[in-house]
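Q: Hi! First time doing this. I have a protein sequence and I read that you can turn it into a structure. Is that right? Here it is:
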Amino acid sequence: MAAVNGCPEELLSRLQGDVQAAARGGLLGPPKTELLPKWERLISQEPRRLLKPDGSLSPSSLERFRQKQLFVPDDPTWDPHRLDPRNFLGGGRRGILRTLEECLEIIRRSPDAERLLRKYPSPRIGQPHLFRRFGYTCTYRWLKHIWSLGLLKASVGQRLGEEALVIDIGSSYGIFSGLVKQEWPRSCHLLVDFSEQLLLAHYFLKSWLPRSRVAGIREVLLQPELTRRWLQEYDFVLVPCSLYGRLRVEAPDLVTNFASLGEMTRPWFASYMDSRPVQTARFLFLVNRVESRPTYPTDLGIVDYPIRQGRRCLHFAVSPIFSEPFAYRRRCLFFSEKIANPPYFEYVGERCAII
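A: Yes, that's right. Below is the predicted 3D structure, encoded as structure tokens:
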């Protein structure tokens, strides 16, 4: 099959169709509802690195989107295995490597997570800079999702069901959805995020799992209502956040969110947490900051999350990897300093009452 900058022509054509459909539907750029400054800036600026001036996709940017850190940061941001003096002299680089080593050790101490990391090394899709140690291949973001997959399997396991309907709010480019899909092959996944992020998810998931059936933005726009029957015709369904209100699903098997709920304004937060899919989900899996401030200018905190409302707690803890006790940043060029990270909570709950 012919390819353009490593992207098959057929997939590139589908992605271009999604871009055009999103543009016609007014789904590109900042939504009308106010965002926090970080996301207002990202949604205003990052598409310029993904889309050409004429509005079409840049195949070269798509091919290297993880290396270029499009929308979502990750570590390492450089090749840590290259013989480069900066890797040994720069305090910032040494600090990042130390953080990666400590997070990898957390995974290695968990038998379930360690097996999953061996089973699922980070793919090279998006050409990320990869960290390799002791036979593992990963990035920091990859380690966090491997940890979350292990936690899901330990707390829920096969009770999730072979044909589970899973909704990931703030899905980014779909790492967690892709991992869960491979552990539960007959599951259906609905990814909710900004349209620009979903373009990357479409590329990532279709490249990683080429036989998967993906409903992109173009297909979703044609549906006035997103019903369970229609969703389950696909493996992955990509839903722009502005179209979340079209979802007509009661009691999805699992709803997840990792970090981004705490990065929202209260109206956006409420639009998800008060929605029927979240309120009626059988399992709810959240990993978020205990307090959003001072990192983000919003008053959201752990008391705002629906973790005590008609649910039986299956797991609750301070996350050892999202809130890795310390990070290491550059200080005075050649040195690094240890700094405390804000704590994140992990919660897995099962609905046990009619809501």
